[in-house]
Design brief:
The chain is about 80% helix and about 0% strand. The chain has a domain at about 255-404. The protein has a two-stranded antiparallel sheet with strand order 1-2. Helix 2 packs across helix 7, helix 8 packs antiparallel against helix 9 (about 240-280) and helix 9 runs antiparallel to helix 12 (about 320-350). The chain is mainly alpha-helical. The chain contains 13 helices and two strands. Mean pLDDT is about 75; it is low at about 65-90 and about 195-200. The chain starts with a helix and ends in a 7-residue tail after the last helix.
Length: about 400
């Protein structure tokens, strides 16, 4: 009967594939604000947990009056069943999952930090890139004279390479026009996307508000929602299957959270290293470029290279030769980051060996780009832990020790 029903469903599914695809697309559009809100809540929960623990320690440290011991509950009261919470010190006890002042404060601080990062990226970096492009185009004639003078001095110093230098020709007008075209095309695409968004601004604002409110409600009542989810799982699945499902969900959530926190720590460390090195060697735009590299370093392993491109772009305005030395500095720090910081800070935080971190980044990036990189590393860690457990159990069932 199961085979027959499955075959019929598959037949009608293939027969009505276009209709099912349209219905699935409509359904996905409807639930997309909730998917975005849940993803946003999961990301914001990582710093929010740390801020909440810090606030709890801060507020508990301010208490100078010792807490009163809880009074004994009379035997008669113990035997009476009630739905009201037990009272402590004359006050009604808080229900599990109830919203506290610390929870609200930690959520507000987390949201402000998140909006601050977005503001820094959109309103500080993007205008600076446009101004830098205009300055580079204006300074191209002076840079051309400096470059040709350097080539002439090099030809006098090394006559053997004079013939090669004579054949070396650069079309400066094409370079300047290329930079302007790049900026104009980027601005045009942004304008067209802005117009496209403006045509459906009502739906965009409505969905954004729903996603944001949904994320805030999840963060304020996450313990209560988790308890409800566990009750549903245990209500519809056998206990062994429910235990395994809860374990996999818990492992996945913990792995993704540790990956996000490790990725954030790695980005901060890399940005700080660049800031110190650029201050020591007197590079311009030290703070701006360090922040830019730290932000792009949130993209696993390859994001810092995007920051390097923008760093060269900014430094070239001041001194083109210094931009070359910045590339050398970047390659040195990138080797330190790739071989020491990332495998041990991020790979160690999720329990995944560095070789599998590289594989996960490569596969995830080829499948889904930046999002694939962010998802495949913790996903590979979860699969790695589950497969390691399966291998260990099979070895034990055969009377073999995993260490042997």
């Amino acid at each position: 009967m199961i085979i027959i029903i499955s075959a019929l469903l598959l037949y009608f599914g293939l027969l009505k594939f276009d209709d099912i695809s349209k219905a699935a697309g409509t359904f996905l559009t409807i639930i997309m604000p909730f998917i975005v809100g849940g993803s946003l809540a999961f990301i914001l929960n990582v710093p929010m947990r740390w801020i909440e623990k810090w606030l709890k320690r801060l507020f508990s440290g301010k208490k100078t009056v010792p807490e009163k011991t809880e009074t004994a509950v009379p035997e008669k009261t113990k035997s009476v069943k009630t739905t009201e919470p037990v009272k402590k010190n004359g006050k009604k006890a808080k229900k599990p999952g109830s919203v506290t002042l610390v929870r609200v404060l930690s959520l507000v601080i987390t949201v402000f930090l998140f909006l601050g990062v977005l503001f820094m990226i959109v309103f500080l970096l993007v205008p600076e890139i446009g101004r830098s492009a205009d300055m580079i185009v204006d300074k191209l004639p002076a840079f051309k004279l400096t470059f040709e003078k350097a080539l002439a001095e090099l030809a006098v110093k090394y006559p053997s390479i004079k013939n090669y230098l004579d054949d070396f020709n650069i079309d400066w007008e094409s370079i300047g026009q290329g930079i302007l075209n790049f900026v104009n095309n980027a601005g045009g695409s942004m304008l067209s996307s802005t117009i496209g968004v403006a045509t459906s601004v009502a739906a965009l604002v409505f969905n954004s508000i729903i996603a944001f409110v949904f994320a805030m409600n999840i963060l304020l009542q996450k313990e209560k929602l988790a308890a409800q989810g566990k009750r549903i799982i245990y209500a519809f699945l056998p206990k062994p299957a429910a235990d395994r499902t809860i374990y996999v969900f818990s492992l996945t959530s913990d792995t993704f959270a540790r990956f996000l926190s490790g990725q954030g720590r790695e980005a901060v460390i890399l940005g700080f290293l660049f800031f110190i090195a650029m201050i020591i060697f007197r590079f311009p735009y030290a703070l701006l470029i360090s922040i830019l590299i730290g932000v792009f370093a949130l993209i696993p392993m390859f994001g810092a290279f995007i920051g390097c491109v923008f760093g060269v772009f900014f430094i070239m305005i001041v001194d083109p030769m210094m931009a070359v030395w910045f590339v050398v500095l970047f390659l040195i720090l990138q080797q330190i980051e790739g071989n020491l910081i990332y495998p041990f800070v991020v790979g160690g935080s999720i329990g995944l060996p560095s070789i599998w971190v590289l594989v996960a980044v490569t596969v995830g990036g080829s499948i889904a780009g930046v999002v694939g990189m962010l998802v495949f590393i913790p996903l590979a860690s979860v699969l790695y832990v589950l497969f390691r457990e399966i291998v260990g159990k099979r070895l034990q069932s055969r009377g073999l020790e995993p260490e042997a």
